[in-house]
Amino acid sequence: MRDPAKQKAMAGPRPVVMSGPSGAGKSTLLKKLLTEFEGVFGFSVSHTTRSPRPGEEEGKDYHYVSREVMKAAIANGEFIENAEFSGNMYGTSKAAVQAVQAKNLICILDIDMQGVKNIKRTDLNPIYVSIQPPSMEILEKRLRDRKTESEESLQKRLHAAKVDMEISKEPGLFDVVITNDDLDVAYGKLKHAVLEEIQKVRDAHKS
Ligand SMILES: Nc1ncnc2c1ncn2[C@@H]1O[C@H](COP(=O)(O)OP(=O)(O)OP(=O)(O)O)[C@@H](O)[C@H]1O
Ligand SMILES: Nc1nc2c(ncn2[C@@H]2O[C@H](COP(=O)(O)O)[C@@H](O)[C@H]2O)c(=O)[nH]1
């Protein structure tokens, strides 16, 4: 296959990487996207060693595994990227991304900053979106109000957030940086960032 146009058309839609501090609103925004555009996006279900939160489901939100299982799978080459975050392991398996791409859907990855840097070394070629909170104070309030973290985990996440907010300003690291203040405004910006890929999937479904 030498025709670049044909190659591009066959490559399928570009994945979307969503990153940003814990509590910035990534899951809230991506859930809106998955609901509005059913049959267009697919979520890359990560593995984690943290325990499920109330309401979270195995295989939907995460694959919940022990540290031993995760380490063995990483050693076996099953992961595209993995990271240690707030005392737990997280990782994107090759199978998670392939499951979405096999359906020709836009694969969404919700990953931390270490994950972003590692994905940059692969040939995944995603659109990189950073979701940022309006301020550290608002971030802390959102995380506390979510009531999912112990004080220790909360402090670790706030520390990581400060680093994330600085690094995300690095020119060229993200295609789009969205401040999630008003949810509807932030969602509008996210949709705009991925519009071209949405159109590709819709065109492919028509033909
Ligand atoms: N624009 C917003 N205004 C007010 N509250 C918001 C907004 N966006 C999200 N929230 C709330 O903030 C909290 C954190 O949001 P969310 O869980 O989506 O963050 P996250 O970035 O996915 O975090 P994590 O990385 O820990 O999974 C949630 O309780 C959510 O309802
Ligand atoms: N590098 C990766 N980071 C991931 C992955 N899955 C989730 N995450 C990030 O972890 C933190 C915490 O998530 P939480 O669900 O415990 O609040 C958050 O920033 C996620 O984006 C992954 O596979 N790789």
TrEMBL record:
Segments of this protein annotated with the region Disordered: 1-23
Cell compartments where the protein resides: Cytoplasm, Cytosol; Photoreceptor inner segment
Location of the Guanylate kinase-like domain: 13-195
CDD domains in UniProt: GMPK
GO annotation, cellular component aspect: cytosol; photoreceptor inner segment
PROSITE patterns: GUANYLATE_KINASE_1 (PS00856), GUANYLATE_KINASE_2 (PS50052)
Signal peptide: none
Keyword S-adenosyl-L-methionine (UniProt): no
Enzyme Commission number: 2.7.4.8
GO molecular function: ATP binding; GMP kinase activity
Top-level taxon of the source organism: Eukaryota
Main location class: cytoplasm
Reactions accelerated catalytically: GMP + ATP = GDP + ADP
Keyword terms: ATP-binding, Cytoplasm, Kinase, Nucleotide-binding, Transferase
Pfam families tied to this protein: Guanylate_kin (PF00625)
Subunit and partners: Monomer. Interacts with RD3.
PANTHER family, A to Z: GUANYLATE KINASE, GUANYLATE KINASE-RELATED
Family designation: Belongs to the guanylate kinase family.
Protein's name according to its UniProt entry: Guanylate kinase
Organism this protein belongs to: Cyprinus carpio carpio
